[in-house]
Write a sequence for this structure.
């Protein structure tokens, strides 16, 4: 018996996938074609409105009305409207207009009075790229829930008003199911029958519920617990022992949860925000009338003398201090030494020369 190559066994699967892919592409193309057709007919309508008063210039009203009457249904006006329907860059729009220019002429001269809705006549009935609202697909089947209320008014029908799509309902938030008649967890059916459901949100404490209060919960959400009246109430995590936050954090209780915030930098442990929430004062701070205040080590406020090395001076900072070299000194190898500028000898000013004394000249006796 001859063995079958694995590649041949995979062939039917590949053909099936190819067929599904082509079907999906075709449905997308039909949606796109309907969108283009809607653009064409909408812009055509705008062109009719824009040219409605064209030809009036004031003056001889009777003559203008006769002229306008001729222009209203003229081929000139049709051409002007069609030329402005598409942008020059819109390939699909221009192609649709060019391929079906004869249909526009037919509607303009013969069908406009009987079929005033151009979109319905052109897109739905003539070129057949769209469906009536509430219908989808090549045969324009009604969406689930009917064409008047697709997806029972609680979702969007895939391919609605186009020849594409599969009619699948994408439910609005709060709804689920093939026909969007069921409520998701956290919602309950406030009004419900075979063709209509109104889903409303449960109380914030409920995982699921049968009504809108915290006593209607079927199950409490995490962070909530049942009290003696079978109502879901908030769990205060901040009151638990041990505390849920770190040593340098304080706890904030929220409905159904909690959060941890960092203590103020002046605190060593805290019960709340700011300096008023300190349990103890951090290093470099001390308690002054119930408030953690900076210790000024430079003024002798610390337990030990600071900056005791030669030529050092103290600079106080929040919660600490710095030892820096005094003016005219710089740090070298951990010591403050005179700076290079201060070591340069002062230049001696040159001594002023005494003016030379003029010696009297001897004169020969005459």
């Amino acid at each position: 018996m001859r063995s079958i190559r694995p590649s041949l066994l995979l062939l039917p699967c590949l053909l099936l996938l190819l067929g599904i892919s082509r079907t999906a592409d075709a449905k997308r193309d039909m949606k796109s074609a309907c969108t283009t057709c809607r653009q064409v007919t909408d812009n055509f309508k705008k062109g009719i409105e824009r040219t409605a008063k064209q030809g009036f210039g004031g003056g001889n009203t009777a003559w203008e009305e006769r002229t306008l009457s001729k222009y209203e249904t003229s081929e000139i006006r049709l051409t002007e409207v069609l030329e402005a329907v598409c942008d020059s860059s819109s390939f699909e729009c221009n192609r649709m207009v060019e391929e079906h220019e004869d249909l526009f002429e037919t509607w303009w001269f013969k069908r406009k009075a009987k079929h005033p809705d151009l979109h319905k006549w052109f897109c739905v009935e003539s070129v057949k790229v769209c469906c009536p609202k509430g219908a989808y697909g090549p045969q324009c089947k009604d969406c689930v829930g009917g064409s008047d209320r697709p997806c029972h008014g609680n979702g969007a029908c895939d391919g609605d008003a186009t020849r594409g799509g599969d009619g699948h309902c994408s439910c609005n938030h709060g709804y689920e199911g093939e026909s969007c008649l069921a409520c998701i967890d956290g919602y309950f059916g406030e009004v419900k029958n075979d063709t209509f459901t109104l889903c409303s949100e449960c109380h914030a404490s409920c995982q699921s519920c049968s009504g809108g209060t915290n006593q209607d919960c079927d199950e409490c959400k995490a962070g909530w617990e049942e009290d003696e009246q079978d109502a879901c109430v908030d769990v205060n995590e901040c009151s638990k022992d041990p505390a849920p936050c770190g040593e340098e954090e304080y706890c904030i209780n929220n409905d159904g949860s909690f959060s941890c915030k960092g203590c103020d930098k002046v605190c060593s442990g805290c019960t709340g925000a700011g300096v008023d929430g300190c349990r103890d004062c951090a290093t470099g701070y001390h308690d002054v009338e119930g408030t953690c205040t900076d210790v000024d080590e430079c003024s002798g406020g610390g337990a030990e003398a600071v900056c005791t090395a030669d030529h050092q001076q103290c600079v106080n900072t929040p919660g600490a201090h710095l030892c820096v070299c005094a003016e005219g000194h710089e740090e070298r190898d951990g010591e403050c030494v005179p700076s290079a500028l201060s070591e340069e000898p002062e230049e001696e000013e040159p001594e002023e020369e005494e003016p030379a004394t003029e010696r009297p000249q001897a004169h020969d006796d005459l």
Remarks:
- Residues 159 and 165 are 4 Å apart (CA to CA).
- The chain has a mean pLDDT of 85.
- The longest strand covers residues 187-192.
